[in-house]
Amino acid sequence: MSNGATETRSRAGADERSGSSAIAEQPKASASTPGNEESKKLKRDQKRRLEDTDRETLIQLFRQMLLVRRFEEKAAESYSLGKIGGFCHLYIGQEAVAIGCISVLRPDDYVLTSYREHAHAIAKGITPEAVMAELYGKAGGCSHGKGGSMHMFDSSVNFLGGHAIVGGQIPLATGVSFATKYKGTDRVTLCFFGEAAVNQGSFHESLNMAQLWKLPCIYVCENNQYGMGTSLERAMSLQDVAQKACAYDVASEFVDGMDVLAVREATQRAVERARKQSLPTLLEFRTYRFMGHSMSDPGNYRTRREIEKHQERDPLKLFRATLAEEKILSDKDFARIEEEVKAEVDKAVRFAEESPEPDEGELYTNIYADEQ
Amino acid sequence: MSNGATETRSRAGADERSGSSAIAEQPKASASTPGNEESKKLKRDQKRRLEDTDRETLIQLFRQMLLVRRFEEKAAESYSLGKIGGFCHLYIGQEAVAIGCISVLRPDDYVLTSYREHAHAIAKGITPEAVMAELYGKAGGCSHGKGGSMHMFDSSVNFLGGHAIVGGQIPLATGVSFATKYKGTDRVTLCFFGEAAVNQGSFHESLNMAQLWKLPCIYVCENNQYGMGTSLERAMSLQDVAQKACAYDVASEFVDGMDVLAVREATQRAVERARKQSLPTLLEFRTYRFMGHSMSDPGNYRTRREIEKHQERDPLKLFRATLAEEKILSDKDFARIEEEVKAEVDKAVRFAEESPEPDEGELYTNIYADEQ
Amino acid sequence: MAVITMRDALNQALREELQRDEDVFLMGEEVGAYQGAYKVTRGLLQEFGEKRVIDTPITELGFAGLGVGAAMAGLRPIVEFMTFNFSILATDQIINSAAKMLYMSGGQFKIPIVFRGPGGSAFQVSSQHSQALESWFAYFPGLKVVMPSTPADAKGLLKTAIRDDNPVIFIEQERMYGLKGEVPEDPELTIPLGKADVKREGKDATIVARSLMVPLALKAAEELEQQGISCEVIDPRTIRPFDIDTIIESVKKTNRAVVAEESHPFCGVGAEISAEITERAFDYLDAPVRRVSGADVPMPYAKNLENLAIPGVAQIVAAVREVTYS
Amino acid sequence: MAVITMRDALNQALREELQRDEDVFLMGEEVGAYQGAYKVTRGLLQEFGEKRVIDTPITELGFAGLGVGAAMAGLRPIVEFMTFNFSILATDQIINSAAKMLYMSGGQFKIPIVFRGPGGSAFQVSSQHSQALESWFAYFPGLKVVMPSTPADAKGLLKTAIRDDNPVIFIEQERMYGLKGEVPEDPELTIPLGKADVKREGKDATIVARSLMVPLALKAAEELEQQGISCEVIDPRTIRPFDIDTIIESVKKTNRAVVAEESHPFCGVGAEISAEITERAFDYLDAPVRRVSGADVPMPYAKNLENLAIPGVAQIVAAVREVTYS
Ligand SMILES: Cc1ncc(C[n+]2csc(CCOP(=O)(O)OP(=O)(O)O)c2C)c(N)n1
Ligand SMILES: Cc1ncc(C[n+]2csc(CCOP(=O)(O)OP(=O)(O)O)c2C)c(N)n1
Ligand SMILES: [Mg+2]
Ligand SMILES: [Mg+2]
């Protein structure tokens, strides 16, 4: 790593930079089996970060994390009822990443991500109604029912999808950041992808171009430790994703993705680097997916026990606990927010249910821009 | 880098492992602008290595380097006379790499490479006749005139081509080494490619699989510092190719590609690793292309001066000087070898000239294995 | 004969060929521990172990090329694409390496490899995950392309494909994995590539259908029977090599032809079949060959639009009535 | 009017459009410092600078995707493939991103991008570097595909392609860069996409030819004129959208059609044209449409074999005589 942007990483000392597989273990260990020491330390860091964040923001972060959690739970319900078709990749367990990252962006910054994008879409400003309606394949959906679960788009909030080819969004985001620089703006582009996407050639080709041309693109790897049923270890020879930045001289950080404030802090540094110096960053957030890969996942590639272990560090639970201890929110407040969020999600479902199917004529629109 | 396979590299000290762009410069400096100190040191190393190599081998190495040099000169001549068509990528200046590497292989080891493969084909055991005839597009060519300059093949000497899509041979070679391991043999696969091919996704995807599955594949990057008209610096954000192995936990070495004995020594270590431990290695040989990218290259992307500077370290000249100083070969010997080599190349041209064009019926053979 | 699903028929073929030949191995995303994204490879890891059933990283270009290299060195790889949509990332290795190697090496390196997986339309997964690519692969000399429409064909054709010394693109229809049919037990059951199958005999019109369209064409034929129109339904089964003779023979009898396909029309396999029929049986045709193809649009997500994009029995019936001027 | 080469006509189009619109930029391998592998981009780096003329690493998938992303954010990229052979590595981004983005986003994101470069047969570079891929791209709704056959068409069509709001695949024939022809000076010279051009009028037979085959078809027409057969030669120029009407009109007049192409026949553009003509003008046809296509083999290196693989005037003449029963 270079550009000294390795705060989190450098904690573990110098040999961590040697590229030996040893370090690959370190972060994995830290995230997947949180020792008592570890979590105490995390608590301390979190408290420190609390001070630097204003109350409104803290509440907003919690509210949003809760919103996307409840949204996904409802989506799962609708899916089981057959009201949502196709695949449906839920985000439960990873909320701290999308909410934390996107919370530091400006409205005119861009976001691109994969098929696991409901939370990102909502965080960037698409209404839960429009996202749910898209899942229902209705005309009121953010892609007018043509994209579905994996292809949410909204140009008005600079949410550029929703891409279903693993790794496909990485060159696209690189191009978006190329355009913002070309136009002389200081807009930043955030590109989310899973750790399994890192094995795709498109990751390699993109990071090289991004550093070669100094593009303000932030590559956010949501390392939930599984690509479908394949664990990190079974797919990657060196499992330290952040470390891979060394092959491109790109700045990188490894961060606990269960801690929304840690996510925010790291993203802020990357956004600074992008906006001020027009330089890319690779961020690895270690997180975990509590539900199956998609609704059809039997999930027999991991144990209940493993999932439960990670659920002890449920990002929502952790953050709620902190907010409570710090007396930032009372039980009454939490109850009220739960109420509001529930109402918002129910409203989204109602909207989706009532929204009409796309007009049959839509089958032949939007193929070429000319007809527009 | 890991596995401690960084002899050459570690010379430059510890910080060299930190992945900062600084090191990217170091090897470049060493190879492209050889200071007096540098070259003295190289001389010493070379002498040391002389002791460990028997006379017969030394002579054979020189003879082969001279043979492919003269072969390419003749190919250029025939091309100018319009007797060879298509592209024609000459190897002049890089002889120490193909000859050095392949000299440590067993006949049953495999070699795959790019379109710049005349020397590799000859080094692996295809006769100059068959290679020249292929350039002429004649029935006597090693691919019976169907492959041409970029697609030399000979199954009898385990030379598996000759591939014209930049980076395309890298997954192929990975698969060949997968097969040798699957079959329980200790055969090694050598895969040559240029430094520009390193930017292709296929390089990234292959090195990950090779280390993940512990495949006995040796990835040989012939870093001649240009991909067509584009210099290393203009195409690669981190120009230290060997360093990129850190992203996969693959062992790697950076080696002076103008010193045939250094090439041999490094390749021997990699072959050991592959044969004994079934592990991959990435070798970067810094070298230089004295001729144009292909016969049609105007070459206005670099100066005469730059080329001449590198020609001072012409691998053939360097090695000849050492052999002379060490009294391993006398001027008479050199003259004799020149004679023999010239005769061999002339014989190749005669063969190519006299070999018939492929029978017209050949147009429709070899499309499917069935008809065989 | 046992009645089993297309999925299980394919699974049997894979198991039998893995048992039969040590050089055969299977690789792809989630083919092992996960038992296959569509469960076609269920149980194979347990039976044959990690050496021969290999889970790969998500690197389609890489492992497709690795497979071709392994074939050059004497193995017989079966490479599964979780879906053929992802083979688009691997086309360079499939076309430039697998299809051309034998030719450009002057006959020295055959590439006995099978690229298989589900293709065609899926259920509400939108345009990046729902498309027919057979015409892409069939365009290239050097490749064979197979598309079964019944469990028995699937098993027999896959076994032949695995034993074939050429690269074979084997496309299974994602919507048909659950389709049931009788499959002979015979472990030596193989079906030659390049041999069409007359799924139903008739005299008034010829319907050429493949993959998902075969059951629909048979339904259409039944409906038309009621209306007094007798249809012959032919499933080419192999797109390359293509058994045009069986089709021409039929057309010379019926003098009318309809091609049904779920793929896009432009430069599709239907276009090739239509052109071939006209070139070879022009004087026998009482009507121009009609194509019933998938809508010429990227696949939409919404169920109602998706249904409109995929041809149904009604369109096939209408096309037959058109060519029979009834 | 100045007489210039196809190469210079393309260069003019690029220069004029770069001058006209700040959002237009050009990227690809060796397009800048090297002045283009085939010199089509000569002088552009010097005139427009490194911001707008960008040399890329050899990462076709990466920079094709980068181009599509830049288009999503409002730029109008021109992405050069050194040759279209290498676009095979980028098909995922071309098909799954460029072609489908507008549709799957419900009309929100248009992708105004041009992918251009030489395609078709080259001179003795064997099978990985010599192939025709137009049918691959034309298969997909969402893409436009253009193949000019004269310097004037090349300039006018490229300028239109760059101004088009859709992804356009612009295939220049590698062997035709040196071809000379008259080109109007007019900087506003544009030629609409989707409009065929009648290159020669005639009454006995229609020859539909594109790209490299157009000059050969015209030569064949001259020869046939001597033999008393008057041929109409139509160049569709755009493969998608395809101007079938102009062709049908001609066939209704001549009652006979031949399609000439250097591509492989199977599922090629010729198959589509043949099928379309038959579907729409069956009753006007006095003979089945004949296709003259490139050999159905990977391109061989040897000059004598390569010559046999590419259709020539003789084959076109023979095909016309066949359909005219002369
Ligand atoms: C190119 C490609 N190959 C395979 C798939 C099927 N697939 C969809 S998601 C997925 C796993 C991706 O894992 P990761 O990148 O870690 O993201 P996550 O699902 O964990 O968020 C796979 C194999 C695909 N969509 N695209
Ligand atoms: C995928 C692909 N893109 C582009 C080309 C055209 N091309 C042939 S060689 C070359 C340069 C390769 O440079 P490098 O890998 O360093 O090898 P070198 O020629 O220096 O030996 C290019 C761009 C190609 N053959 N394949
Ligand atoms: Mg994951
Ligand atoms: Mg090079």
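^ magnesium ion complex. The two ends of chain D are 40 Å apart (CA to CA). The interface with chain A takes residues 25, 51, 54, 56-57, 59, 61-75, 77, 92-93, 96-97, 101-110, 112, 141-142, 144, 164-166 of chain D (CB under 8 Å).
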